[in-house]
Structures are given as structure tokens and as C-alpha cells.
Write a structure and sequence with these properties.
The chain has four helices and seven strands. A hairpin with a 5-residue loop joins strand 4 and strand 5. It has a four-stranded antiparallel beta sheet with strand order 4-5-6-7, covered by helices on one side. By secondary structure, the protein is an alpha+beta fold. The relative contact order is 0.12.
């Protein structure tokens, strides 16, 4: 009889460990799904933050442009020349109205403009670049279809989102 009680006790310990393991897995699964949901929400906010940053940067560039006597090319005050980089990469072309622009409007020049203004890499942020049909607009599109359109001649920034109200 004592062996039967010992076997029953060991079996109860195994069941208790199994129940504890199942509960732990359930808690981890719930936390995992909540974490993944919050990561998607944070990444969806990416262009909202970049929109605000772009507006602030454009305001600073316009102020620098006015303070420096309205030059056609300008090195931005927050950019530092590196020994490996050439001076041409540091210079930003400025339109007649005082807004950053590019010489030849295409996807690569719009990407370079994004990097010069915001310092980020569009590929790592999963941003797709499109050029407007009149070749005067650079559009930056996030994976959730949010869009920032920057008009090169007027400096106008349009932010479109698919956010539900």
C-alpha cells in the first residue's frame, strides 16, 4: 500500500508541474500577442513622428536660408563633414522660395533628401518612395499606407493617414 501512495504522490507532482507549465505557456502566449500588437501600433506611428520632425526641420532650414542671405546651395548646420564624405553630399540645393529640393527628381534623389533632412534610412523604416507625375513631389509611403508628400518647389508637406476615427 505504501508503494501505491508513493506512486500516487509522484503522479500528483507530475500533474501539478504539467498544469503549472500549461499556465505559464498561456500567460507567455497572451503577453506575446499583446507585445506584437503594440509593436505594430508603434511602427504605425512612425510617419506621424517623422511628419512632425520634417515640419520642424523645414522651418529650421528656411530660417537658416534667410539668415545666410538666401544661398542656392547650403550646408545644414546640423550636418558635419566627415573625412570619408565629399562636400557635395553635405550640400543641399535650396529652391527660390527657400525650401530644400533636388536637381533631378527621382526615387534615389528623394531618398537622399530624406536622409539629409531627417537622417534616417528609408529602407530600414520600410518606407517606399514615389515621385509625383509632374516630378515636383516626393512621396514617402509607410507599410500601413500612411503617406507624407513633400512638394519640392513650395515646401508644402501633406500627411495622409488611413487612421480610423
Amino acid at each position: 500500500m505504501q508503494q501505491q501512495q508513493k506512486a500516487d504522490g509522484e503522479l500528483m507532482q507530475v500533474y501539478a508541474k504539467l498544469v503549472a507549465l500549461i499556465l505559464l505557456l498561456i500567460v507567455l502566449a497572451i503577453l506575446g500577442f499583446r507585445y506584437l500588437g503594440s509593436v505594430q501600433q508603434v511602427s504605425a506611428q512612425g510617419l506621424v513622428v517623422e511628419h512632425t520632425r520634417l515640419l520642424n526641420v523645414l522651418g529650421m532650414i528656411k530660417a537658416q536660408w534667410l539668415a545666410k542671405g538666401r544661398p542656392e546651395m547650403m550646408r545644414l548646420d546640423w550636418q558635419f563633414t566627415d573625412v570619408t564624405d565629399g562636400q557635395d553630399q553635405q550640400l543641399v540645393k535650396i529652391s527660390y522660395g527657400g525650401w530644400p529640393t533636388v536637381n533631378n527628381v527621382n526615387e534615389s534623389s528623394c531618398e537622399q533628401l530624406w536622409q539629409q533632412l531627417l537622417g534616417g534610412d528609408t529602407r530600414s523604416q520600410q518606407i517606399v518612395i514615389e515621385v509625383g507625375p509632374k516630378r515636383d513631389v516626393c512621396s514617402y509611403i509607410a507599410n500601413n499606407n500612411d503617406r507624407i508628400s513633400y512638394q519640392l518647389t513650395s515646401g508644402r508637406v501633406i500627411f495622409l493617414t488611413n487612421e480610423e476615427i
